[in-house]
Amino acid sequence: SRFAIAWIDSCASTNSSLMERMPGDDGRAHVLVADRQTAGRGRRGRQWQSWPEGSLTFSLLWRFAAGTPAPAGLSLAAGLAVARTLERIGVSGVQLKWPNDVLVNGEKLVGILVELQPARDRSLAAVIGIGINISLPPGAHVEHHAGVTDLARALESPPPSRPALLAHLLAELQQLFDLYAVAGFTALKSAWEQRNAFAELPVRISGEHAAVDGICRGVDDDGALLLDTADGIQRILAGDVSLRPL
Ligand code: BTN
After folding, report:
1. Which of the following is catalytic: 41, 43, 84, 162?
2. Among 151, 167, 194, where does a domain finish?
3. Which of 28, 36, 108, 153 is the catalytic position?
4. CATH number for the domain that contains residue 140
5. For residue 1, what pLDDT is reported?
């Protein structure tokens, strides 16, 4: 198989474990799944809370050869792969929130954290961490602020088991990353934009120091957000910014 999968009880963060251990290149994509994370990480230094049994949390190490297209679109590609997986198992109304949240009915179902480690030979190791809410404990929606949902609510039938869900996700991720490696984000742009939750809507992009408002005009060939501001179109790179509706 092209995947080497380790499924463990617990760790601090599957992303941190893979980044620290950085398994040697044996031609396989290494996957680390943990039933529980004691220090799950989100984007922009946030925590990621998950529930044993109620979530699927894993990270995938994917290597891109030197000379593959700009990595900026990778996190969008990962979001698209997750969205397509959810659609395939029967979830409707799946949307993407730039750069890489996956929403259903405007609520967050999946969080993705992509961390990159460029090598000296200019190849790239990408650790893609994915956390999916499958069925949150009663009260979690309320307690954990509105805007969070789970697969049990998004599906009319019972959600698949975690191993089955993982298998679906890995197949889809493999397909999109293989395409990305040869054609870059350009090949995925229109599929991404079809699911853009904020297309043509006013949004605020906040960085550490400043915020900028504009109308979301989709993304470009690198996966940068195109924001139509009072000063014209600005390209926003994912980095350390967040988007919220205005
Ligand atoms: C976000 O929404 O800000 C991203 C959340 C990413 C969570 C996943 S769970 C598996 C992997 N390990 C981590 O520590 N984080 C990611």
Report:
1. 43
2. 194
3. 108
4. 3.30.930.10
5. 67
108 is catalytic: yes
Same domain assignment for residues 22 and 77 = yes
Cα gap 53→159, rounded to integer Å: 12
Same domain, 175 and 220: no
Q: What residues does ligand 1 touch, defined as CB less than 6 Å away?
A: 13-15, 37, 40-43, 46, 48, 57-59, 111-113, 129-131
The total domain count for the chain is: 2
Query: What's the pLDDT tens digit per position in 8-56?
Result: 999 999 999 999 999 888 999 999 999 999 999 998 888 998 887 789 9
Residues 188 and 240 reside in one and the same domain? no
* Ligand 1 atom nearest residue 41's Cα: 14
Encoded amino acid at 104, one letter? V
In the chain, what percentage of residues exceed pLDDT 70?
A: 95
Name which residue sits closest to atom 15 of ligand 1, judged by CA.
41
Say if residue 128 is in the same domain as residue 174. Answer: yes
> Are residues 100 and 222 both part of a single domain?
no
Q: For residue 214, give the CATH number of its domain.
A: 2.30.30.100
* Whole-complex ipTM: 0.99
The whole domain housing 64 covers 3-194
